[in-house]
Amino acid sequence: MPGVSPTSGGPGAEWLRANQQHLTGALAELRAALERHLARQSAGGAGPDTERFTTEGSFGAGPEVGGAPMALDRLTSLFGLSAFERNLLLLTAGPELDASFAALCAALQGDPQRSFPTFSLALAALLGAHWSALSPGAPLRRWRMVEVGAGSALTTSPLRIDERVLHYLTGVAAPEPRLAGIVAPLTWSGELAGTHAEMVQRVLAVWRRTAGWPNPPVIQLRGDGASVKRAIAAAACESAGLKLSVTAVEAIPTAPHETESMARLWEREAALSGSALLVECGEFDFADGPRTAALARLLERIHGIVLVSLREPRRLGHRPAVGLDVHHLSAAEQRGVWRAALGEAGERLNGQVELMVSQFNLTADTIQAAVTEARGTLGAGAAEPELARALWDSCRQQSRPRLEDLAQRIQSAVNWEDLVLPEAQRQILRDIAAHVRQRATVYETWGFGRHGARGLGISALFSGASGTGKTMAAEVLGNELRLDVYRIDLSAVVSKYIGETEKNLRRIFDAAEEGGAILLFDEADALFGKRSEVKDSHDRYANIEVSYLLQRMECYKGLAILTTNMRSALDTAFLRRLRFVVQFPFPDAIQRAEIWRRVFPASTPVDGVDPWRLAGLNLAGGNIRNIAMNAAFLAADLGEPVRMTHLLRAARSEYAKLEKPLTEAEIEGWG
Fold it and tell me: What single string gives the DSSP state of each residue in 41-110?
């Protein structure tokens, strides 16, 4: 049974030439032996040619170049081929590499139609022949190096060398085609630091302790952060002189015979390419019995180095496992990576480094990428303020890709001047911004975070009627803090299938952890409500979903905001677990007039627009903005500045949309 052995990067030109000469020479000797056997057949003789074959029946080992043996010799050693099995493999490779072999096979078998190797031909012509060479459990067929074609008998059926094995013999690195789409090579060229670098050493220590075991333990990399676990696996393999390939648990076939086939093909590929396998479980639901069983079967069938990336410890079959918990880099470790990446500039930007560490939760290679991107944008000799801003923006860019597929990023330029709210609500919003900015000082420097992450998340509830400014307030906070705001529609996240809601929420929070983005959960009413009496399993799981969301919000490194139109529908037990609650009131006439003053951009031409008269419309800010924009389109189409007549027409349209009557008192004096 083959093990995984280290290989160098790729064959050099010298090795390729030597390998080609060795393979060509072996084939030439085999062809000459077959020709002499044919001559003896014609003369009435029988039996294999003992003149040219040694008592072992082999052609002799080739030279090693740079410590690397020839492909034929390494293949023989890896899979434990006997001399006869090695020569039989060469016989099947002959017709593929030398056209004269086809005619020779036909002549030896006395049939021009039988221009292919057969087992009966090998038994007759090759020294040391043994029947077991072609049994299903013997190396040639167990590892699918030789395929038996259709025929009336096993001994007379065509034999063909496997394509992957043929390429290997010639020195061509061609991955197993039957694993395409299932297993893919994983390349990585980043950096690891702190506990992540230590984790690589722990993996290597396990491999050293179990070197030579026929079935080494599976390494379980447990925790969040799939990219970090990939990096640890890749770095460990690189240090061990191995390549790394990755597969997803969802790609593993569930039918037992197909799982067995995948295991055999991978184990052969691992031996040929010197590779280890990383199985990624991601968000896989282990309640899926058939696929969980297929994963366990695969791990038990593969005898080689295997790693599994998953969130929590799992017992997967009977194969021994070593579990390693992978965590994010600590704040101190991230500071060290930042300073190393920035060099001398890191000392001058010390305060900014602290801010970035408090806000972003990045890996070592992501930090390096952020520094490279920022410097590439600015060029050499950039001043500290410009570099600090570029680094911050680069951190935001680095953390965006994972969230873009799960939520909608809101891009807006609104600021405090655009937000019309009573002073009490504005002050709470400023307090929220202060909590986000001063998180590192209070939690780390002042020690409030030493007892764990629970309760350290900054969570808020924005409640109020539609259009009262809840989303705009989140946008103002995002621009104030220079953070991305992502809107998540909870009505789309909540699933009727048990466990799916938590899975959706987990994906969102996990993706947001790196960038500490502001998460805006719209329409919290879809999930929150009065805690219902548990009458069946669905009621119980509904409460679990709410508890899970609040739990993640309490531990989330960034700011999470829930919005609702109906605060009265929320359970007070849930409200107590939120740090901030902001009630957005329906604007009074004074506030509505102020909204009207600010709703038109400075470049919009207006004529006779009276904010006080417009304030008579009993509408929220969102509706006011709709009317202003619709009036602007009407005026632009007529080539006129915005006037009260355009606003009246737009107001009638907005009221009709709301199915609300527009009274004469509201538009009195508009003219």
Answer: HHTT--S--TTTS-TT--------BTTBPPHHHHHHHHHT--HHHHHHHHHHHHHHH-THHHHHHHHHHT
pLDDT tens, position by position, 91-110: 999 999 998 999 999 999 98
Contact 295, 279 (CB under 8 A): yes
| Of 245 and 456, the one with more pLDDT | 245
Q: Which of 322, 185, 169, 179 lies closest to 263 in space, CA to CA?
A: 179
Cα dihedral across residues 631, 636, 638, 642: positive or negative: positive
Fold of 416-584: Rossmann fold (3.40.50)
Residues 6+ apart with CB under 8 A from 421: 429, 469, 473, 584, 591
Encoded tokens for 351: 């305060």
pLDDT of residue 531: 46
Q: Are strands 408-410 and 485-489 parallel, antiparallel or unpaired?
A: antiparallel
CATH class of 184-325: alpha beta
Residue 329 φ/ψ, nearest 5 degrees: -60, 140
Cα separation values, 430 from 421, 427, 465, 478, Å: 12, 5, 21, 12
Note the CATH architecture for domain 589-657.
Orthogonal Bundle (1.10)
> Is the CB of residue 485 less than 8 Å from the CB of residue 520?
yes
Q: How far apart are CA 595 and CA 582, in angstroms?
A: 19
> Which structure tokens are listed for 525?
């009413």
Three-state secondary-structure class, residue 498: coil
Question: Which of 420-434, 489-503, 634-648 is predicted with the least confidence, judged by mean pLDDT?
Answer: 489-503
Q: Would you say the CATH fold of 416-584 matches that of 184-325?
A: yes
Please choose, from the candidates 307, 476, 328, the residue with its C-alpha nearest in 3D space to the C-alpha of residue 399: 328
Q: Are 81 and 134 in contact (CB under 8 A)?
A: no
Strand order across the beta sheet in which 275-280 lies: 184-185, 243-248, 275-280, 306-310, 218-222, 321-325
Residue-range domain boundaries for the chain: 13-174, 184-325, 331-399, 416-584, 589-657
